[in-house]
Design a protein that fits this description.
With about 220 residues, the chain is α+β, with helices and mostly antiparallel strands. About 40% of the residues lie in helices and about 15% in strands. Helix 2 (about 50-60) packs across helix 6 (about 145-165).
């Protein structure tokens, strides 16, 4: 384009050779293929600025009409983490004992999970992601678009950013999650999407022995 339209800027883009692109893709795949959901955390602290950079990386995600409908709340207060743990375990106990159908419970057996969520108190940080359905501006409601899709992409980038800096996490969705809005005093236009304990793995951490689907199961070329 000879002339840049008003309201636009020229794209800054780094292009690589096929050989370098393959190398970068292989290295990134190797990094991400070692990612695991971790339930056993060390209580070792780390520089919170690393977490803040991971959030800012997540905030580069595409979103419907660029509304960026997310809020990442970083919780480091031991008192608030404990309050979240107590409330989450209350809901999870109800889920495991009454709400979940047998088929769901059977599927979870391979992961050795139950309603106890000690990691919510052990991990040095909990990150609670809220989705923002709308904004109130000048007395009128400004709707956001493709909120779930936008927040989901952002969270995926957040998890990748954590993996890139050697931290581990777990996507946890105690249902219902209304207690998070109450505990964290969030406005009515924000709803909890999920929470992620973040830290280093416990030295004796274990993970389930599972396999990921192969190329032909997740990809089709037509």
């Amino acid at each position: 384009m000879k002339n840049t339209p008003e309201g636009f800027i020229n794209l800054v883009h780094q292009r690589y050779s096929d050989e370098e692109s393959r190398l970068r893709a292989q290295q990134f795949y190797k990094l991400m293929s070692s990612r695991r959901s971790v339930r056993f955390f060390s209580d070792e602290k780390f520089d919170r600025r690393l977490l803040e950079l991971a959030v800012m990386t997540a905030s580069t995600a595409p979103s419907g009409a660029n509304k960026q409908p997310w809020k990442y709340v970083i919780v480091e207060s031991p008192e608030i983490k404990r309050e979240i743990k107590i409330a989450a375990e209350k809901e999870e106990k109800e889920n495991y004992e009454r709400r979940m159908p047998k088929s769901w419970l059977d599927d979870l057996k391979a992961f050795g999970t139950d309603w106890h969520k000690d990691f919510l108190e052990v991990a040095p940080y909990i990150v609670v992601v809220f989705k923002i359905d709308y904004l109130n501006e000048d007395g009128s409601m400004k709707k956001h678009y493709y909120v779930n899709e936008s927040v989901g992409i952002s969270v995926g980038m957040f998890i990748a950013a954590l993996q890139n800096i050697g931290l581990v996490t777990l996507t946890h969705t105690p249902s219902p999650m209304n207690f998070l809005s109450r505990i964290l005093k969030r406005p009515s236009n924000e709803r909890a999407f999920l929470l992620l304990p973040v830290g280093y793995p416990h030295p004796e951490a274990v993970v389930p022995d599972i396999e990921r689907k192969g190329r032909d199961e997740v990809m089709e070329i037509i």
